[in-house]
Amino acid sequence: MELIQRPRRLRGSDAVRRLCRETRMSPDSLIYPIFVDETLTGVRPIEALPGQNHYGLDSVNLAVEECLAAGVNHCILFGLPAHKDAIGSSAWAEDGVVQQAIRAIKAKYPHFYVITDVCMCEYTDHGHCGILRGHEVDNDQTLDVLAKTALSHVQAGADMVAPSDMMDGRVAAIRAILDEHGYQTTPIMAYSAKYASAFYGPFRAAAGSAPSFGDRKGYQMDPHNRKEALKECALDVEEGADILMVKPALSYLDVVRECADTFDLPLCAYSVSGEYAMIKAAAAAGLIDEYRVMCEAALSVFRAGANMLITYYAKELAQAIQKGDIG
């Protein structure tokens, strides 16, 4: 048989397969979530997320050291405060848990890149992502406290802020207050297309942020919608976002691809707690090869067009890239 085109020629060895890869990954594109609990001393395993931990303010740098040892240089911080109230006032307190964690990290590891999640759900006693008016979140009143929270993070030393609340106009409000206080060069990573997903369950247990009533469908996006993601991203671009995000990752790869093709800004995807927990559970049951599935799942997100990935597997993925198993 005379065949001119033989695609298998470029699959014949590991060397040629690596040479011809279309999708490349780097440890520099990975962001590791760190949970800091103000009430904790030391380290406590997170039952809902096997292999993950809560860190006290005295131990947060252990998480940083593990990241650096694995080749991960970026984190996103989530805080569990000692005090919660109706307006989430500890979110922007100078001595809040995230603010203290930032200072502790930067004092020892000034070049480790710290992104902070900006939201109210961990800090309010009702668990919603903003200030309530009755049983509804008041969008415009919430903008003020989100902006104050973002500013307090940057004043404590955060390198980037990432609003995850899904309030209309929050990127503009944060950009305005940062610029007003001289932080024009601090970037904003916007949770632009954040869906009201069933994949967040383990995170809410880990962060203590489950709403005490109702749900978040009034502000997070309907999973049925694709075009709305483009609208949300376009608004964030107009308001001054520097990086866009799609969350979750795996069930929204079509959205990742379309946003990557439509907008020129860097695109982040968040491989959320439910995705991680499913892989862990299937591996524990002996149903899958955890390492290979971890690699393949992450690769799919980058192949879809993401430039960076927030993932609980960041350390393991960085090591897999260094070993040449992916990347």
Task: Explain what this protein looks like in three dimensions.
This protein is 38% helix and 16% strand. It has helices at 14-19, 60-70, 97-108, 139-156, 170-180, 201-207, 227-239, 253-262, 273-284, 290-304, 314-323, and strands at residues 30-37, 43-45, 53-55, 74-80, 113-118, 132-133, 136-137, 160-163, 189-194, 243-247, 267-270, 308-310. Helix 3 runs parallel beside helix 4. The protein is globular and about 75 Å long. The model has no long low-confidence stretch (mean pLDDT 94).
Question: What features would you highlight for this structure?
Answer:
327 residues, alpha/beta, ten-stranded mixed beta sheet, 12 strands
Mean pLDDT: 94
Point out poorly predicted stretches. Answer: none
% residues in beta strands: 15-25%
Helix content: 25-40%
By secondary-structure content and strand pairing, the structural class works out as: alpha/beta
Short account of what is shown:
The protein has 327 residues and is α/β, with parallel strands linked by helices. The chain is built from eleven helices and twelve strands. The longest helix is centred in the middle third of the chain and has 18 residues, at 139-156.
Write the layout of secondary structure elements.
Layout (H helix, E strand, L loop, with lengths): L13 H6 L10 E8 L5 E3 L7 E3 L4 H11 L3 E7 L16 H12 L4 E6 L13 E2 L2 E2 L1 H18 L3 E4 L6 H11 L8 E6 L6 H7 L19 H13 L3 E5 L5 H10 L4 E4 L2 H12 L5 H15 L3 E3 L3 H10 L4
Parallel strand pairs: 1-3, 1-4, 1-12, 4-5, 5-8, 9-10, 10-11, 11-12
Antiparallel strand pairs: 2-3, 6-7
